[in-house]
Amino acid sequence: MPMPPAFDGSKTVVAICGGVGGAKLALGLAHLLGARLTVVVNVADDFVHMGLRICPDIDTVLYTLGGRSDEARGWGRAGESWNFMAATKELGGEDWFALGDRDLALHVQRSCRLAGGETLTAVTAAVAEKFGIASKILPVTDDDLRTRVHTDAGVLDFQRYFVERRCEPEVRRIAFDGAATARLSPQVRDALASKQLGAVIICPSNPYLSIDPILAVPGLRAAMRGSGAPVVAVSPIIGGRAIKGPTAKIMQELDIAPTAATIAQHYAGLIDGLVVDSADGAEAVGLGITTCATPTLMTDLPSRIALARESLAFAARLAT
Amino acid sequence: MPMPPAFDGSKTVVAICGGVGGAKLALGLAHLLGARLTVVVNVADDFVHMGLRICPDIDTVLYTLGGRSDEARGWGRAGESWNFMAATKELGGEDWFALGDRDLALHVQRSCRLAGGETLTAVTAAVAEKFGIASKILPVTDDDLRTRVHTDAGVLDFQRYFVERRCEPEVRRIAFDGAATARLSPQVRDALASKQLGAVIICPSNPYLSIDPILAVPGLRAAMRGSGAPVVAVSPIIGGRAIKGPTAKIMQELDIAPTAATIAQHYAGLIDGLVVDSADGAEAVGLGITTCATPTLMTDLPSRIALARESLAFAARLAT
Q1: A105:B111 CB<8 A
Q2: Which long-range contacts (CB under 8 A, 24 or more apart) does A186-191 make?
Q3: Within a domain: residue B19?
Q4: How many separate domains does chain B show?
Q5: Percentage of chain A with pLDDT > 70?
Q6: Which of A37, A39, A316, B308 lies at 20 to 30 Å from B283 by C-alpha?
Q7: What is the CATH number of the domain that holds B219?
Q8: Do B105 and A92 touch (CB under 8 A)?
Q9: Are B92 and A51 inside 8 Å of each other by CB?
Q10: Residue A284: pLDDT above 80?
Q11: Which residues in chain B are contacts of A115 at CB distance < 8 A?
């Protein structure tokens, strides 16, 4: 796969990424960049369930970049079976969070290795290697960072809100417990400090639930701005609507208009450019942010790679 | 299923039980006694694997009495699948101890509940209830008790010796770490102190690996003797041979003749009667121990119930 003509083939890229939506673009970037891509992943959705440490966003990125994701279902592993869940239910265990038999291997291995003193960064790297992933996948921090959703039904842990309650409670505020003290991963800091860095891409994950907790880690924003590389966000809005249901619902509840301009405003001061969908036009969003209009709906691998190429080419133009 | 004519239908029974071999007789006893049976199970084969607490003997008894054991394979759960193991192997995890997808639910539930402060006794009772088991299944102790096998290849944890090394190293001595301080489960003490107790049956599990660690818990022998009920062991020897491979091999390595007389000697001072296989005759074994000869090979449910009936009738005769 040829690089975008404008993007220097020796440069590296850091992608800031949440779960499913972001992982699609990360896969496109990985196809183009291989080992020159570092994906910095949200950990604020992580939780301990049945004594096991589960990292939904990291797992999604690992399965997606490792060619092991279930494309039809949209989450989890391909070729999955559910006998563990059936037996858990029989024992009266919690069954609101579906854990596939294959998926479980990752949670058990990770929990065991974390208990043995390894960092989440080290465990994630080991799994990526086993999955044959050339790109680096880095948790933004090895410290505890947890999204807490303040709703009309009380304050909920993220997975309780997102999976158990299916995003039904009305969101009033989103907080990130531990953000004040979480330490930016040294590997993330290094990736952003690299002289080879050619671009930072903020993937089209939910800005409020998936990207904000990453950006909340002290030092990350400064490291992004200080890198000197252009910072480009890809808007999750298509035609004045958030294509992912929860994002649309949350934006409405937080009284935020689902427009490219809103996204630009959200990332103002941090990004140099915003990739917007062709349907949203290429009108100026102001705030010193340049826009680039292109199809952003990623329905298959070619459309993921195409958006990745376009985003990198845009970043290259911004750098000149 | 009618009770043996000689055994008082209002009496309770305590069975002392290891894994597969013992569980077969326990199942026969459970068919006859239901809620009047208490099975006291070995925990010295337990271990922590990948961070999960695994109790092979308790699990075997739960699956056997719960009608969930795989009869053809001889261990583990029926209808089992192995996708967790396949995915674990892919991740470079340990694969010497096979954990089925359904089986895993029990280990995860138990580990989580133990970590939450419940006792192994409580967790085991909860699982037995979910499995619809009327009989009580009790770990002999809630404390740590671990079989360590001294071999020509060094000192091995039990599962390392039994599963990973397939009993290949030559056994020189068997030790039970923690036996000096393990506290007899109060529920086991109560079962043996019951005025309704009609018999104590030592199942035909491996005397050295499965029954000895149970008997090593301080206070158990005294509670058995002090109960006043007849104590009957069922010999694991058939026709001068131990029918289970490891038992035969270990007896040879420990220079112990595989005879009913040897078993009688091993349990001397503790038992009143010994059920021996018809092939081993009904000759006196001395030591004040009465014998009863009957077919002891348990190939199907009727033969398990038949041996249970015979053992109970024998105990009833000893009580008069």
Answers
A1: no
A2: A187/A121, A187/A136, A187/A138, A188/A14, A188/A38, A188/A40, A188/A138, A188/A140, A188/A141, A188/A220, A188/A223, A189/A219, A189/A223, A191/A12, A191/A14, A191/A38, A191/A40, A191/A136, A191/A138
A3: yes
A4: 1
A5: 97
A6: B308
A7: 3.40.50.10680
A8: no
A9: no
A10: no
A11: 51
